[in-house]
Specification:
By secondary structure, the protein is of the alpha+beta class. The protein folds into two domains: 132 residues, Beta Barrel (Cyclophilin), CATH 2.40.100.20; 145 residues, no CATH class. 45% of the residues lie in helices and 17% in strands. The strands form two sheets. The chain has an eight-stranded antiparallel beta barrel with strand order 1-2-9-6-7-4-3-10. The protein has a two-stranded antiparallel sheet with strand order 5-8. Strand 1 and strand 2 form a beta hairpin. The longest helix has 27 residues. The relative contact order is 0.15.
């Protein structure tokens, strides 16, 4: 397959392999797609972007590795719905699930793409869009839509899907307003904005990664519906309410409608569908948050070495 970043004029070829064939198949079946390209902010020289693949939330892995130990160019799929690409040294001791590798001849181009994306995320804030496709296939894009049996919750799924699609390649206006200091609630003590941005980032990512992604996995593991409803109430309400106060009104509206309809979800299939839509939406918000956040504000803070 090919991974291309048209905005910076770089394309690399990659080959999927048999280390995690189920995950590789999930990705292959979703091609082609486009996504906002991100860069690791803590782990090191690592690219990742959100793949529009609901099944990545729960598809089991056959092989897990310490991603620090595998060759540069290794591709990973994760339960965070990410396609990741290692292009240099990584410091985080995280297990990961490899699915393939960028061909050796394109590793220099991959490194250049990594540097350009880092510059985009850390400094310029000009979005870099990744295009992933089968070799020889035209570029394209679509987001999967999963139906829900209950009419009101199916309408909610339709609206969440439409909103996710609308903001997939364009930043949400709510986040743009927040990052420009337009916060109707007045969130931010002493008129600060950076503090609010930090807390919004800290709540949005686990809402998608842990809450909704975790609920999908719990349902597939067979957790009884009463427990799933209770866990949803416990995990989703407080962070979504806080994010609504900070300006993410649409997320809070979706969450309230979801919570009010929980008792009408009577089977695991519908539960997985609506939670899957919420997961992808929150993960998309999280991706834009990470891109828009003013990371360069900390440029004067640099790592000095291990403490004595």
């Amino acid at each position: 397959m090919e991974i291309s970043w048209p905005g910076i004029g770089i394309t690399v070829a990659a080959e999927l392999d048999e280390r995690n064939p189920s995950l590789a198949q999930c990705l292959w079946d979703a091609l082609p797609y486009r996504s906002l390209q991100g860069h690791a902010l803590v782990a090191g020289y690592h690219l990742y972007h959100l793949a529009p693949v609901h099944s990545l939330l729960h598809t089991p892995a056959e092989l897990k590795v310490d991603r620090r130990t595998v060759p540069d160019g290794t591709l990973f799929c994760s339960r965070l719905q990410h396609l990741g690409i290692k292009y240099g040294e990584l410091t985080e001791p995280m297990t990961a699930t490899p699915i393939g590798k960028v061909v050796d001849a394109d590793l220099d181009a991959l490194s250049q793409a990594g540097r350009e994306v880092w510059h985009s995320v850390y400094t310029t804030k000009e979005p870099v869009i990744a295009e992933v496709r089968r070799t020889g296939q035209a570029s394209g894009h679509d987001l999967p839509r999963m139906p829900v049996g209950d009419p009101e919750l199916n309408q909610l799924a339709t609206e969440v899907h439409a909103e996710t699609k609308r903001i997939w390649l364009d930043p949400p206006q709510e986040l743009l307003n927040l990052h420009q200091g337009r916060i109707p609630s007045g969130a931010g003590s002493y008129e600060t904005v950076l503090t609010t941005l930090l807390f919004v980032n800290g709540e949005t990512r686990p809402l998608g990664y842990s809450c909704y992604g975790g609920l999908v996995r719990a349902a597939l593991d067979g957790m009884p519906m009463p427990w799933l409803r209770q866990m949803t109430r416990q995990l989703a309400h407080t962070p979504a309410e806080f994010l609504g106060y900070c300006g993410l009104d649409r997320l809070w509206d979706f969450t309230q409608r979801l919570l009010s309809g929980l008792e009408r979800i009577n089977n695991h299939e519908d539960f997985i569908a609506i939670m899957g839509h919420m997961a992808l939406y929150c993960n998309c918000l999280g991706g834009w948050n990470l891109h828009l956040f003013p990371w360069e504000a900390g440029a004067h803070l640099r790592r000095t070495g291990a403490p004595a």
